[in-house]
Amino acid sequence: MMHSSLLTSEQAQRLRLAFDDDRDAETFFLRLERYGPELLDSLRAVYLERADGLMERLLEIMLHAYHTRPADLRRLDEARLLSPDWLQSPRMVGYVAYADRFAGTLRGVQEHVDYLDALGVTYLHLMPLLRPREGQNDGGYAVADYRSVRPDLGTMDDLSALARDLRGRGISLVLDLVLNHVAREHEWAQKARAGEDQYRDYFHLFADRGLPDAYETTLPEVFPDFAPGNFTWDPELGEGHAGEGGTGGWVWTTFNTYQWDLNWGNPDVLAEFVDIILNLANRGVEVFRLDAIAFMWKRLGTDSQNQPEVHHLTRALRAAARIVAPAVAFKAEAIVGPGDLIHYLGTGTHHGRVSDMAYHNSLMVQLWSSLASRDTRLMEEALRAFPPKPTNTTWGMYVRCHDDIGWAISDTDAARVGISGPGHRHFLSDFYSGEFPGSFARGLVFQFNPATGDRRISGSAASLAGLETALEGGNEALTRLAVQRLLLLHTVILGFGGVPLLYMGDELALTNDNHYADTPEHAADNRWVHRPRMDWALAQEVQDHPDTPAGQVNAGLRWRIAVRKTLPYLHASIESRVVSSPDPRVLMLRRDHPLGVLLEVYNFSEERVVLPAYVLRGHLGEDAHDALSRSAFHLTRPTVTLDPYRALWLTAAEVNA
């Protein structure tokens, strides 16, 4: 019997007639019973009296997608329902790449699946590949069509074939889904400009500056250098009633003038995206990276980020996906503070029911902060500030990504360790742009905001960690330290508990692409300095010459990935917990697994650090085993010495007996 608040008996009977197979019907109804109430509750919270009508529409969309879901994906659905923690497994290792810069086309990516498989990858995030607007498109995040692929990359059939090949190797395909905005050239925006009332209501449009000016008083600027403000005048925008367009109006454009923010207050927008998600899921997409999710709901008098409706909308999208394609997971791209971030994984009635995964941006920022300062106390405070996440969710951790690094350092955290938040952010910008005396880094300042003094940083992991400077100077000692820094940073993300995300080229220690500006559409955006093309010759060379810097990084990463996959302690249902370190240069994390304790120890300095052995003994007993070096530690001795940038993954010796 169906949930009484969801379907009447007549509706249930009508729905059952849509099935030829009783087993299919039973499966659909069971999922609807499980996830339908969540879907309807969130629809009612956002859309009030319009929710029931919207639910009827969504049932039709879900039925069609369910009937057209391929058999192999249906099998994956059943497998994932039996292993709901698949995304939390220590075997999950991610790789993030632009398809064109990795291999030219989707078919090219398919030709290199062996490379990814050998590296240990089980999760492949291909950066925006749905058809964007021509010319400037914010790296592909200005989508003109969610139902076609960039023509230079291939076709939707190529995408399906790639997903099928990856799935056969146990690799999940991850795609970006831009939720906050579409390109000005998208069909919806074109119809809005033509004056069609239905599509005008897909966007936030204004006849004059009255409301935009009121909103602007509390809105931040995302790209103050090249896209100041949050609203754009469009001379082609009509006033409504098709055929009367062209008088002009203001459009909400948070990111760039050519990216029109969507009006999620309109239930038609949600229905469109349920259809888009299910269509892509039936093409084989297993994880959706929900881009710019924090900006979806607008509210006057606020910064229009992290509004409660965002979490209801995400829960509704997730519930609809679970009914049709429970193999699918959501990852929130919410680069916000810990207090806001936890809501994207779910709190209260949303606990564990919003996104399955979220980026741990703070960990990335703190890694680079500790590397520059040789001091982990701020990282300790920042990690302690995180509320516990739902046990069925996971973090996505990364050393670098396609974006710049914004110094999200909390003034409160900084004050607790006796430093100035603004002062430390200034130091980090100086250090990683190479302006600070003695800096090893080679980065570029991105989006300097003179009003706040904020300076974000672009640069590849290898260049920021000092490899570019060391290689240019021909200094073997500095080169060795740069390699050790890169391996340390990656060891932390591999051991933190979640899905470690390797950014394309970092496994080869690729340095900055200092010719990025030779491409005219990239010249104004120095983030392209860390978006190089894959060096396949180097990928072969590191196999033949593992003693080179790139070879050492590659071999070190492969070993760490292999070790990670053998350690059940790294299951993401368990959190890494900071434990006090007697030396500020050393970070210590403890993971309490049913098999025992895993203690992670990281030296963030180029100096040898001597720790009193009792600090480790208190967690592990008298004898310990390091999984990374496969060596024994006798903690009855007075001290333990950590070499520069050394990492230890320690368990009690009896566990490994």
UniProtKB/TrEMBL annotation:
Annotated PANTHER family: ALPHA AMYLASE CATALYTIC REGION, ALPHA-AMYLASE FAMILY MEMBER
Any one GO molecular function term: amylosucrase activity
Pfam families: Alpha-amylase, Amylosucrase_C-like
Protein name: Sucrose phosphorylase
Biological process according to GO: carbohydrate metabolic process
Origin superkingdom: Bacteria
Positions of the Glycosyl hydrolase family 13 catalytic domain: 96-545
UniProt xrefs under InterPro entries: Amylosucrase, Amylosucrase_C, GH, GH13_cat_dom, Glyco_hydro_b, O16G_dom_2
